[in-house]
Specification:
This protein is an alpha/beta fold. It has helices at 13-24, 31-40, 54-76, 91-97, 115-120, 133-157, 168-180; strands at residues 2-7, 27-30, 82-86, 103-109, 161-163.
Length: 183
Amino acid sequence: MIYLVGGAPRAGKSLVGQQIASDLKIGWVSTDLLVELLRVKNEQGVKTEWNAAPEAILADAEWFLPYLERFIWGVSSQAENYLIEGVDFLPAQVMELSKKYQIRSVFLGCSHMTLEKLDQYPGRSPGYGDLPEALRRQIAQDVPRWSRLIQAECERLGYPYIDMADDFSERLRQTAKTLTNQA
């Protein structure tokens, strides 16, 4: 089984991924690492700057799909179960991949983000604190927009979506339950 945890930046995907992978005793990877490897390889089209415009999010997900599929193909031949989390795929890509692979997925968003919240909960990416304040403010402003895009896509295509904006610990439990109890 391939478990996919997608969603907006700063929504808790890495924390959920690590928790579920630990509970299930399976491997996991963030698409951040896969994209960084593509960047090191100087792959054409890899994103190099923050762009949360819906067109850019959709284009990046389409660009990344062949690489994600190749990774899933490779990991499926090596492991029975694996978890992949990140911002680099959307429900449409999961639907496409589900035609070939056994997949369970959930998408996370955050309907309310402030600069203070971004700074207070750096998650697994402490590098956010080192970014210029204007960019951090832009990220905090863009996360809810990004989340709305994902929520709309989840509703349209029938995938679970969880808003992590409040009671984060409870939403983490809800996400794990949703992902591991899907039929």
